[in-house]
Write a structure and sequence with these properties.
This protein has three helices and six strands. β4 and β5 form a beta hairpin. With 88 residues, it is of the alpha+beta class. Strands 1-6 form a two-stranded antiparallel ribbon. Strands 2-3 form a two-stranded antiparallel sheet. A two-stranded antiparallel ribbon has the order 4-5. The chain is 38% helix and 25% strand.
Length: 88
């Protein structure tokens, strides 16, 4: 799936759906999600539901190549999620 498809999919989830997905993540059983993607998009969606401003991962096209930001960016060994903690 593309980042845009994951975004469209997770935006359909409400709190109950997210709790179910969280339980699946804990069991490492997330059908329909590539490895790590369920957790990544779940976290972003939780912030979004709580009225925080978020930026979902997206693809960046460079002439002749394709650079994906499908996974969280990394700072050293720590992942950096694309979140802006601005409550409304």
């Amino acid at each position: 799936m593309t980042p845009e498809q994951y975004t469209k999919k997770i935006r359909k989830y409400n709190r109950a759906d997210l709790l179910k997905l969280w339980k699946q993540v804990l069991q490492d059983k997330t059908p329909g999600w590539a490895a790590g993607m369920a957790f990544q998009y779940l976290i972003i969606r939780v912030f979004e539901i709580e009225k925080n401003e978020v930026v979902y991962p997206y693809s960046v096209k460079v002439p002749g190549t394709l650079t994906d930001s499908e996974g969280p960016e990394r700072i050293g060994t720590l992942p950096r999620m694309l979140l802006v903690g601005k409550s409304l």
